[in-house]
Structures are given as C-alpha cells and as structure tokens.
Amino acid sequence: MAIFTPEELEQDILNDLSEEIQELYEASEQTLIELELTPTDNELQRSLFRSVHTIKGDLGLVGFVPMIEVLQYLEDILDLLRKGEASYTSMLSDLVLKLMDRVTRFVTDCIKNGQAHYDKEGLDATIVVIKQIHAGNKSDHEQLLQKAINCLTHQENKGCSDVQGKQLELAKTGIPKDLSPDKQGDLLFFRELMRPIEKRAGYKEGRGDRLAILAFYINGLSEQPIAEEQLAVACYVHDFGMAFMPNHVVMKTDKLTNLEANLMRSHVYKSTRLLEHLSIWDEARKIVMQHHENLDGSGYPLGLKGDQICNGAKLLAILDRYDNLTNLPQENEQSLTPKQAVIALNQNYKGQLSGNWMRLFNQGMTQFLKQ
C-alpha cells in the first residue's frame, strides 16, 4: 500500500470538496441505475461522463494526484460511450462504481486523517488494462473491463467471466442448503405458518418462496452478501403481523384513514415479536423491523435514515415492493408485468431505496428478463 499526504488546505475547501464528491458519487450511482434500464440513453451517458469529469477536475484543484490518472482513463471510456463507440454494460457499471468508491474513500481519508493509504499497485494495473479500450476493439471491451475489475480487486485474471451465468442460477426453494436441523426446522415452520396468513392478506400463493428465491438471486450478486438463512427467515415472516389486522383494513382498496394507516404500520412490531425469543434469528428480526424504513427517513416505524438501516432491510424493501406490484390478486387490474414493475421502482422511489441494492436488482432483473 502507498501513502499520500496532501498539502495543507483550508478546512472550508476540504469540506466543500467532500460534499461535492459525495453528491457527484450519488448522482453517478443514480445515473447507473437508470442506465441499467435504458442503456442507450445518450443524456444519461453524458451525465455520467460529466460527473466523472467534474470529480477529476476537483481532485486536480486540490492536488489529490494519485486518483487523477485512473479517472482520466475512465473518462476516456465514458467519452467512447457517449459517442456511441462503446456500449453500456453491467461490467462497465461495476468498474465505474468500484473506482468511484475508491475515490470517495481516498478523499475521506485525506480530509479526516491528513493522509490516505491507497492501492497503487492495483490502480496502476487497472490503468494498464483500461488504456487498451478504444473505439477499434469494441468486441474486446467486456473482456478488458472484467480484467480491469480483477486488477482493481486483486482477483485472479479470469478473462471475461460469465457474470450473466451466475445471475441466472435461481434457487429452487427459499430454504438455504446445509442448514443445521434446528434452523431448517424453524424455516420450514415459518414457511408453513405464513401460507394462510399470506392468503388472508390477499397475496398470491407462495409469496414467501418468491421473495426468498429472488433475495438469494440478488444477494448473490453482492460483494458483501447477507447471511442467506437470516434473509430467508425475514422474507417469510416479515408480514406475520398482518394476521392480526382487521380483514376490512387489509383488503381495503381506497386510501386508509390515519387510524387505519397507524394500525397497519403496527404489523411490523407484531411480526418482530414472533422472533423475539429466538436469538439465532436476531439479524432476521432486525431486517423485519426495518424493512419499511426509507433512506430519506420517511419510512416507519422508527424513521431511520441511510446507514441506520441494515442491508437486509434495504434489500427486502425493494423485493417487497416488487412483489406487491407484480403479484396482486388475479382480479386486480393494477398488477404490473415484471419489466413495468422494475421501471416503476426506479421512477417512483428515488431517495427511498438503496442505490447499491437497486443497482444489483436492476442488473439481475435485466438479465433475468432477457431469458
């Protein structure tokens, strides 16, 4: 690891830099999410280019040299993209996000600690690879992008690994493999317990299975996956409290009154009490408690924001909404196709759902829907 110590700068300048880098990172993340759905949208491509170009310029102004060169070559790739000489792919998205994450951590360390440790060897190797990407070798872009990611993360050079193949390996059941007898017994019990409750709440049969299988699929795309058994339990029991809601409220299609809305929100507490004395499912209990929280603090029951919400709850919030959109009762004409539901999630919940998990969800669903 190399160490970079920046020149002394006024704290106001550093604070402004940190805020702008974070804003541009978040803007880039949102742009990448939208590009998963509309990869040929030239305005989105240009927006991504501008964000990276601005970050590079900001780092140049304060002399944060180590990250500038790699951003220059990333900018060159995005220039090819906006000119139609390269194609947007999930592989390109991964490279952009990984590099942007390195940059934000580098800036944060410089500001907080007065210096930053960074992986010079990995960055240099990545630069060597991405310099090879140009308009004349478009057929090699995916392989080179994968190689660049491998260099950046110090993985073995696998060439162009078949990420899509991984994405399409759906589980056959919502019960993870290789569980202890006690955990497997609990999961099977929760699965059976929820069937009549799901039916009473008006969900299509098999909701718990659908959510758990989809959760495993998206979770498998993450570099920091959630424990599958905890995720599975949360997928099955998060709506347990619906069993204690009045049926006329549960099935109501008109807007709920304030009293009815507060009653419905209380189902979260009732669901978590099912796991209250089962310590092996503490993480699942946390996911259940938080799955209606929103990143902007507009959710319930505690109004948590951002990193206060656990990863499992961030993922379940997406999948819960997706299933609600696509699997309403047969007679309900408001049900959407899977593609329509993915688009609706991206358009209607900006600022509420996790950008990182939405990106993985979009990647996975894009490939899944192709098949």
Count of runs of 4 or more consecutive helical residues? 17
Sketch the major β-sheet. Answer: 2 strands, antiparallel
Strand content: under 5%
Which class of the largest domain in CATH terms? Mainly Alpha
Number of strands: 2
> Structurally, how many domains make up the residues?
2
In terms of quaternary structure, what is this?
Answer: single chain
Give the integer mean of the pLDDT values: 89
Radius of gyration: 23 Å
Query: Share of helix among residues?
Result: 55-70%
Please tell me about this protein's structure:
The protein has two domains: 2-161, Four Helix Bundle (Hemerythrin (Met), subunit A) (Up-down Bundle); 167-370, Hypothetical protein af1432. Helices cover 62% and strands 2% of the residues. It has 17 helices and two strands. The protein has helices at 11-37, 42-62, 68-82, 90-113, 120-130, 141-153, 163-167, 181-200, 207-219, 228-237, 247-250, 258-265, 267-273, 282-290, 311-326, 338-348, 355-370, and strands at residues 2-4, 116-118. 38% of the residues are buried.
